[in-house]
Amino acid sequence: MVKLYDGGVYLVNGREIVTDPAALPGKCGRNVTKEEAEQGTIAYGILKAHNESGDMQNLRMRFDSLTSHDITYVGIIQTARASGMKKFPMPYVLTNCHNSLCAVGGTINEDDHMFALSAAHKYGGIYVPTNMAVIHSYNREMMSGCGRMILGSDSHTRYGALGTLAVGEGGGELAKQLVGRTYDVARPGVVAIYLTGKPRDGVGPQDVALSIIGAVYAKGYVKNKVMEFVGPGVANLPIEYRNGIDVMTTETTCWSSIWETDQNTKDYLTIHGRPEAFKPLKPAEVAYYDGCVYVDLSTVECTIALPMHPSYTYAISELKANAADILHECQEKANAQITGAKLDLMSKIRGGEIWVDQGLVAGCSGGTFDNVCAVADILRGHSCGNGEFKMSVYPGSMPAYIQLMKNGALTDIASAGAIIRECFCGPCFGAGDVPGNDALSIRHTTRNFPNREGSKPASGQLSGVMLMDARSIAATARNHGVLTAATEIDYTMPAPHTEAFDGGVYQKRCYFGFGKADPNAELRFGPNITEWPKIPALPENLLMELACVIHDPVTTTDELIPSGETSSYRSNPLKLATFALSRRDPQYVGRANAIAALESARKDGTLDVETAALIEGCGGTLENTGIGSVIFANKPGDGSAREQAASCQRVLGGCANICYEYATKRYRSNCINWGMLPFHIDADVKFDFEPGDRIFVPNVSAAVRSGSRCIPAMVIRRSAAKVPLLLRLPELTADERQILLDGCLMNYYAANHAKENV
User: Fold this and answer.
1) Quick one: 275 and 142 in the same domain?
2) 56 domain residue, yes or no
3) One-character DSSP codes across 702-741
4) What is the C-alpha separation between 585 and 576, in angstroms, rounded?
5) How far apart are CA 245 and CA 156, in angstroms?
6) I need a labelling partner for 344 at 20 to 30 A (CA). Which of 162, 188, 252, 592 fits?
7) Secondary structure (3-state) at 66
8) Which CATH number goes with the domain that contains 271?
9) pLDDT per position as a tens digit, 651-708
10) Confidence (pTM)
11) Is residue 509 one of the residues assigned to a domain?
């Protein structure tokens, strides 16, 4: 059972939920104000310890360490270099777990890795070589600690189960930390995730996580808030089980997560050679939460998320009992948002059973030691069969891999016919084990967004992904591809496997350079690594042309810039930008380039007469009116923290996004850091405009400078009809307004450094 409370709650002694504040004196013997109780959460204490503003309503935070993988670190380091960085001021972990196996582009992947290693030498970083560990496994094992804060450029930067408040943000926020600035945000709300009971045998962490995601996502119940895991059920979960739930909190659109800590936490950190990283964390005698999600672990069923979102959840038993109706509905929903190919789920129903083609257990969520051991326990002595179904397992780190070899788990899995892969995030983002056309894949990974698995609908390729727990995936493999919940098979969960950790392989292969910056070391630039192009400042007026209009309920960052092999070009901004919206709107790049050509013609004095007349007719001049492209989407930015979703729009000449609501703070922050105006419109405004329609925004720089939240604009349709449109810019800090005025974060820092050097 997952229950959402309608409003805020008080938690007394970490165990008793109280909804009526009048009852508090009888519970704790004194009056407690809401303001006092708000300070009683675990999250509040950690935020306070890292806040440099002196104002707990408006935080300016400095993190204990940073982390990035090879999709993002080149751009971050290049941004920080352009902003005046001389050395890494805090430990910065550079992992290489995302494009390690991509063959696209020849040498460019390894060239980027060598750039990172040289940067670690020059600026004092920590370098984790390819296939050594996925980013979050390494940080759990080596960097987490109770009361610490870690900022990562991957959205699944979540180490709350280890007492670490971790945040996944775009690269711009890491660049700010690298040049000595702070992470600025209004103090987020905190929602209690109250756990009670104990999971049944066969029910794994993904089942619990998907049950929570399914309950909260559509309601926005924890959006941009901290999820704080408390209650007696926490003690019933091993740490790796907690880690598996914790990493999936990203898919709720929460800001971060934190768990109360206990002996299990202490044991984990001790096993990993860092006993000093432990300290007890629990709510105060009375703590106030902005909401509460009550989870009875004993009632959680084996759960599945259908294509194309982790929140599209069903109990596996319910899906199997109503397969035709549910899969038909899913098929129709998917095909309504995909162009170029059609998803066929109904053909997967054969003989009254649901048949799948592929099973994967991988990455930061699936590849944990405990999950892989559970797969081995279920498959031991059985076979995956010799039909179409195939299965692969990707352990999360080499220390875990070595222990899994020693205890025989990998032997049991391989003997059943499954394939053991490297420590690699590939299946999670379409760079490994891409399923075939019309295939259906079940995965213990973090996401099943459209085409994230690597298919290309524009080329007639399309497959589907369903998220499941490793235990049910193993049960399905044991049944040769017939969808099977782990609770359906004759399986008794053995005693917990003893986890050991030998970090010697890290000591032998990783480079630990923090505090050892060598300014004389040279950066190694491969031929694909380029500097960021020059970004213009915000002009007095804007003429924006719609380059893409998306009316889907939610638009993911994977749609804005596809993952997988396209990410191989991450160190070349202009080349990467050619893939922007390629799987959602293949015409976008051409439209954006045509609009950018108009801006170039305006600067050169060769703008066509029609556009020049339009600008002058709206009250602007060619000197004070810039031209840029704009994207409209109902709710953009769900998913990855990769700032490329915004930077690719920017380098193509984009100047703004328009939406009803941004899906995540991190995508909105990415837009701001790249000088993209994050416009909102009111929910009752009908946006029926089309690509090619133009929007004139007068005095936009003055409005941003003054802090105006409402900016009147005019839509000029292709038919020449004019329609007024009120654009909103809520909740911009003074720094964010200046970044927008300067054109992007790099310009902002360059201007500041120039002033300082005068």
Assistant:
1) no
2) yes
3) HHHHHT-SEEEEEEE-TTS-EEEEEEE--S--HHHHHHHH
4) 16
5) 12
6) 252
7) strand
8) 3.40.1060.10
9) 999 999 999 999 999 999 999 999 999 999 999 999 999 999 999 999 999 999 999 9
10) 0.94
11) no
